[in-house]
């Protein structure tokens, strides 16, 4: 199976602040603390750079799938660009 899913969201903060969250593992950690979107965040491999693998588990009752693993395939701090590939679960199932 091959496909692509992307999402754009306009936020009212300076780009440097947004990238400080999105370009690191801080966003996943904050979402886990909140518990609304992500029940559990597991760092399976890596340190947040290219090759990092995360397992994200969603709260019970979340429509769709219960969890998936993603791998960071591209990380460009200059362009503020991060790409991840689902490698297990999620839309692959």
TrEMBL record:
GO MF term set? abscisic acid binding; protein phosphatase inhibitor activity; signaling receptor activity
Q: Which Gene3D superfamilies match?
A: 3.30.530.20
The alphabetized list of GO BP terms reads: abscisic acid-activated signaling pathway
One GO cellular component term of this record is:
nucleus
Q: Which domain of life is it from?
A: Eukaryota
Using the record, list the residue span of the signal peptide; answer none if the entry has no such feature: none
Q: What is this protein called?
A: Uncharacterized protein
């Amino acid at each position: 199976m091959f496909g692509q899913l992307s999402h754009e969201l306009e936020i009212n903060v300076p780009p440097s602040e947004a990238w400080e969250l999105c370009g690191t593992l801080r966003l996943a950690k904050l979402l886990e603390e909140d518990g609304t979107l992500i029940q559990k965040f597991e760092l399976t491999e890596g340190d947040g750079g290219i090759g990092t693998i995360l397992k994200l588990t969603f709260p019970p009752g979340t429509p769709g799938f219960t969890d998936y693993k993603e791998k960071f395939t591209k990380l460009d701090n200059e362009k503020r660009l991060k790409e991840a590939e689902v490698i297990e679960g999620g839309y692959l199932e």
